[in-house]
């Protein structure tokens, strides 16, 4: 059998809620990947400049960070958690439907801010609830969760591609004289995949803002709204099945009962259904050892860097490929970003099984060492077109499992209190936004080769932080063993009584 009987029975007990959270991350991936390919058509629709349209990128990323930070507030009870998930997934469908009606860049930025907020809540809430359901067995289920996110990110550009303008989508009186060619437009789309951070290098292309708008991108958004609509429907169906809707009868709630039975028998139920930040209130923080805070900081730092590497590589590998010394063709270089995301998705699919067979520290060691080796080889063979594709595939496969593996490992070290998930998801979102800006500014000032150098240095720092995390984990375990609280917990079963 691929899975032992215990894991399989655990999944069968929670399969409805598990599939619901997996589908919610599909919505997340669908929404996060569409902006890069469609941004030029959206520029035409809003009749804005390239500089103005980049505020849409910032709006989405900033509010995604805010949503990730606030997502933990909705895990207090199961009804609140599923209600928040239903609202957020429905908001994503509504935003897809409304985007074609946004004829000004400010309206588009507001729509993307709302979508970003919903995406951040979905990301944090899905991770929190799966960790809470499966606890020590959560690693493989988190790998599957991230796989569905990558699947959504692959589907979104495929849906949008047939509806993208192949020529200038704003026709002015002198468009035949100054308009950009189709190859220029393809170059612009690929260059702006990095959240618009390379805007300084591509602003020389003439793009009109006044004239007749000719674009069919609205159909792409309406199709994506329909594709995403089954997700909130699935959440609503789960709420009905578990008797969580107002018009349902008052039968026992299966998921609530199973969630309580899966917790430690000595754990107070008020911790399970209490505040999402119960482990972080000031009264309890006074009794925490320093290693508790260091583990949060190190885990957040590792994900800040590794998710930053993912965002930077996806955003700037095209710019690196078309610049000296590679000077790759625009069409060939445009495949690199898709290749990278496809390898990440395949890697997460493979690591679903590997996370069942091997421990999280071993998988993290393999992944981070693999990232370093691939980055060093990319630096050595920096003039090879073939190795750039090979290295892109290998990097995606290696780095794909870091987030879910580290999340499961950190929560295990900190006894599944939930605060670690909020900290790690927020750190990952912050790193993806901040590192793209930093790497983009370095490339703009120092040249494209520094892109690989920045990613390599970052991967060494991430591995060093991981080694430090393993060291602090031992110290933290010793602190818990020697603390009076752990002694009291051991004596509790003996002193119990009515």
Question: How would you summarize what this structure contains?
Answer:
By secondary structure, this protein is mainly α. The chain has 22 helices and two strands.
What do you see in this structure?
The chain is globular, with a radius of gyration of 24 Å. 50% of the residues are buried. The C terminus is likely disordered. It has a two-stranded antiparallel ribbon. It has 498 residues and is mainly α. The protein is 76% helix and 1% strand. The protein is built from 22 helices and two strands.
Overall mean pLDDT stands at 81
Span from first to last CA?
45 Å
Strand content: under 5%
Main beta sheet = 2 strands, antiparallel
Strand order in the largest sheet:
1-2
Outline the secondary-structure elements.
Layout: H1 5-32, H2 35-46, H3 50-70, H4 78-98, H5 105-134, H6 138-160, E1 170-171, H7 175-178, H8 182-191, H9 199-202, E2 212-213, H10 217-228, H11 230-241, H12 254-262, H13 269-272, H14 282-285, H15 290-322, H16 330-357, H17 360-380, H18 385-399, H19 402-413, H20 419-446, H21 450-482, H22 484-495
Antiparallel strand pairs: 1-2
Helix pairs in contact: 1-4, 1-5, 1-6, 1-11, 2-8, 3-5, 3-20, 4-5, 4-10, 4-11, 5-6, 5-20, 6-16, 6-19, 8-16, 15-16, 15-19, 15-20, 15-21, 16-18, 17-18, 17-19, 17-21, 19-20
């Amino acid at each position: 059998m691929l899975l032992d009987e215990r894991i399989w029975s655990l999944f069968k007990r929670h399969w409805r809620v598990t599939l619901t959270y997996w589908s919610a991350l599909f919505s997340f991936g669908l929404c996060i990947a569409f902006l890069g390919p469609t941004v030029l058509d959206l520029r035409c629709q809003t009749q804005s400049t390239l500089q103005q349209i980049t505020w849409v990128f910032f709006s989405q990323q900033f509010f995604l960070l805010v949503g990730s930070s606030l997502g933990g507030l909705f895990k207090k009870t199961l009804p609140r958690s599923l209600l928040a998930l239903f609202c957020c997934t429905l908001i994503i469908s509504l935003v897809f439907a409304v985007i074609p009606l946004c004829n000004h860049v400010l309206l588009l930025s507001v729509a993307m801010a709302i979508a970003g907020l919903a995406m951040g809540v979905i990301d944090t809430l899905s991770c929190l609830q799966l960790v809470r359901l499966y606890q020590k067995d959560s690693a493989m289920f988190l790998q599957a969760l991230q796989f569905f996110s990558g699947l959504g990110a692959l589907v979104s550009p495929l849906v949008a591609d047939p509806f993208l303008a192949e020529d200038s989508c704003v026709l002015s009186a002198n468009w035949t004289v100054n308009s950009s060619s189709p190859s220029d437009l393809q170059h612009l789309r690929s260059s702006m995949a990095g959240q618009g951070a390379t805007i300084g290098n591509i602003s020389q292309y003439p793009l009109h803002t006044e004239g007749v708008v000719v674009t069919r991108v609205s159909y792409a958004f309406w199709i994506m709204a329909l594709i995403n609509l089954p997700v909130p429907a699935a959440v609503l169906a789960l709420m009905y099945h578990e008797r969580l809707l107002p018009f349902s009868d008052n039968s026992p709630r299966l998921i609530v009962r199973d969630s309580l039975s899966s917790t430690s028998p000595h754990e107070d139920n008020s911790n399970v259904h209490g505040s999402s930040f119960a482990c972080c209130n000031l009264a309890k923080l006074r009794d925490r050892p320093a290693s508790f805070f260091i583990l949060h900081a190190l885990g957040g730092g590792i994900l800040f860097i590794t998710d930053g590497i993912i965002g930077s590589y996806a955003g700037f590998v095209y710019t690196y490929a078309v610049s000296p010394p590679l000077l790759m063709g625009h069409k060939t270089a445009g495949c690199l970003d898709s290749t990278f995301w496809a390898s990440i998705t395949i890697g997460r699919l493979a690591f679903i099984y590997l996370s069942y067979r091997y421990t999280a520290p071993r998988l993290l060691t393999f992944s981070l060492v693999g990232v370093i080796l691939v980055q060093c080889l990319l630096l050595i063979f920096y003039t090879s077109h073939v190795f750039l594709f090979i290295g892109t595939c290998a990097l995606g496969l290696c780095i794909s499992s870091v987030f879910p593996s580290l999340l499961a490992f950190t929560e295990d070290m900190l006894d599944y209190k939930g605060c670690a998930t909020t900290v790690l998801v927020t750190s990952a979102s912050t790193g993806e936004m901040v590192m793209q800006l930093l790497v983009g500014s370095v490339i703009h000032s120092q040249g494209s080769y520094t892109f690989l150098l920045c990613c390599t240095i970052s991967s060494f720092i991430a591995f060093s932080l991981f080694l430090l995390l393993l060291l602090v984990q031992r110290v933290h375990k010793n602190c818990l063993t020697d603390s009076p609280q752990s002694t009291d917990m051991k004596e509790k079963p003996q002193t119990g009584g009515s």
